[in-house]
Write a structure and sequence with these properties.
Helices cover 23% and strands 24% of the residues. It is α/β, with parallel strands linked by helices and 497 residues long. The longest helix has 18 residues, at 344-361. The chain is globular, with a radius of gyration of 25 Å. The chain binds beta-L-fucopyranose.
């Protein structure tokens, strides 16, 4: 047995118990971690969860033709940003708090933002940089410079390509995917869109083509290519395999919103049914958390007519609480304009949104409180309530296996004032919590001030009117297995004029 195996064996059997001489104890008594409940995330998914908020960049010929879906017959000459600036775009995203960007390398119109070897329908036939430009290269490099992750959107539906709907197209599609997977460094996401509208240019045929979503794309083969070449890239589609569509394009997850889905249900394939995606399914057969995708403007692409329709900071905050605050990731689209930059109106809104988030979350007011848990797992402090406030994802408060509805009290030296509550589950053990409540101490008694259901990666509850109290109690009111909570927070969102 290697030292490593020996060590992990010791941990499994309860290292704490071994060290304190209680060799006969086992399981919860000995301080062993709780058994995972239901489907659990992969390492790849855990990395994705930690990103929480990233962005989309929708940019292509549509930006210049004022369309949302190009037909596929656009001349590459229309693609001609006058002042393209990848740093301006990526800096805007970073300053908004985004952790990554996903670029539409190819949208439904088939125009490629990189000089693919497999088609002439790309930047190489555009006047931009005399056909020498590569938007994928510039954005991916800028992402690395600014510390953001980079991902690609490669539309399966291609209204330009003559072979679309025939088997030959899949070879073309995978060749392109391979270029993106191998040519631009590490990708955090490969985003597979589910739209298949039918009609298009198709190499001049100008006709309607139908495909069977369930079989045509042979997804398992494409997914295997991504796994082989980018093992940590998470793949998106309506039904995974790594994270799912939330079922709407407004940026709102359901309440509750479970990170699990029942993959045995009919329609669970890319481009399949959207039923059940908004709330997820419990206990489910797979860990398939939701991504909330939404544009900062009404359209996904830039339209001059929408300059006055940029979402307000208040709208963006509402979306943030309904996405990140319901255990999902938020993918907020920023459409570069015809210069190839993010428009000032979008920047203004993002800045104020960020300012409010920073003012809210810069300080966890729960820190410093004296914590008393009704129950704690094991003999030592390994699973004690301190794990709730240390800001570390890997430490958590847990209870013995048979304690499903414990509580923890926070006593403050000075009264605290808060209007946002935060909970985080320790995800490697699955989604265990089903309902909770938060009480405040008022006039010698506990009074409930908030309640919620699913938690998962991060649950945020906005309470409205600030609450002032010197004692707070978190009650777990329903759980499928003993809770394992890695974070609890109280915050004060500044009141908006
Ligand atoms: C949809 C597409 O049809 C839209 O154009 C956009 O790309 C959005 C993110 O996904 O399915």
């Amino acid at each position: 047995m290697s030292n490593r195996l020996l060590l992990s064996g010791l941990i499994g059997a309860g290292l704490i118990a071994t060290l304190s001489g209680c060799i006969s104890l086992n399981g919860a008594e000995a301080g062993a971690p709780p058994t995972p409940y239901g489907p659990v995330p992969t390492e790849r998914q855990l990395r994705w969860h930690a990103l929480e908020f990233y962005g989309f960049l929708h940019f292509t010929v549509n930006t210049f033709t004022d369309k949302e879906w190009g037909y596929g017959d656009e001349s590459p000459e229309v693609f001609n940003p006058t002042d393209f600036d990848a740093d301006q775009i990526v800096r805007t995203a970073r300053e908004a708090g985004m952790t990554g960007l996903i670029l539409t390398a190819k949208h439904h119109d088939g125009f490629c933002l990189w000089p693919s070897r497999y088609t002439e329908h790309s930047v190489k036939r555009s006047p931009w940089k005399n056909g020498q430009g590569d938007v994928v290269r510039e954005i991916s490099d800028a992402c690395r410079r600014h510390g953001l992750k980079f991902g690609v959107y490669l539309s399966p539906w291609d209204r330009n390509h003559r072979d679309y709907a025939r088997p030959e197209y899949l070879t073309y599609y995978r060749n392109q995917l391979r270029e993106l997977l191998t040519g631009y460094g590490e990708l955090f996401t490969v985003w597979f869109d589910g739209a298949n509208g039918g009609d298009g240019y198709y190499g001049g045929a100008r006709e309607r083509r139908r495909i069977d979503n369930r079989t045509y794309y042979d997804w398992p083969t494409t997914w295997a290519l991504v796994r082989e070449l980018q093992p940590f890239a998470c793949m998106f589609s309506d039904a995974g395999p790594d994270f799912r569509w939330i079922g709407n394009e407004r940026g709102f997850a359901g309440d509750p919103c479970w990170a699990t889905l029942d993959m045995t249900r009919p329609g669970r394939y890319p481009g399949g049914s959207s039923e059940g995606l908004t709330q997820g399914e419990r206990p489910g057969t797979a860990w398939l958390p939701g991504e909330c995708d939404v544009s900062i403007r009404p359209g996904w692409f830039y339209h001059p007519g929408e300059d006055e329709k940029v979402k307000t900071p208040a709208q963006l905050l509402e979306i943030y609480y309904a996405s990140v605050g319901r255990g999902c990731c938020l993918n907020l689209n920023l459409p570069p304009d015809r210069r190839g930059r993010i428009h000032d109106n979008d920047i203004r809104s993002l800045r104020e949104f960020r300012r409010i988030l920073d003012a809210t979350f810069s300080r966890n007011l729960a820190q410093g409180a004296v914590l008393t848990a009704s129950h704690t797992r094991g003999p030592g402090r390994a699973y004690g309530p301190a794990g709730l406030l240390d800001g570390k994802a890997e430490t958590y408060w847990a209870t013995p296996d048979d304690v499903l509805t414990p509580s923890v009290t926070l006593q403050f030296r000075q009264p605290v004032t808060f209007n946002v509550v935060e909970l985080r589950e320790y995800l490697p053990l699955g989604q265990r919590l089903e309902a909770f409540a938060v009480d405040r101490w008022q006039d010698g008694d506990w009074v409930e001030c908030a309640r919620g259901t699913s938690v998962g990666n991060r649950r945020l509850l906005r309470l409205g009117t600030p609450i002032q109290t010197e004692r707070v109690r978190l009650r777990i009111t329903q759980a499928a297995a003993c809770p394992a909570l890695s974070g609890f927070g109280l915050y004060l969102e500044p009141v908006q004029e």
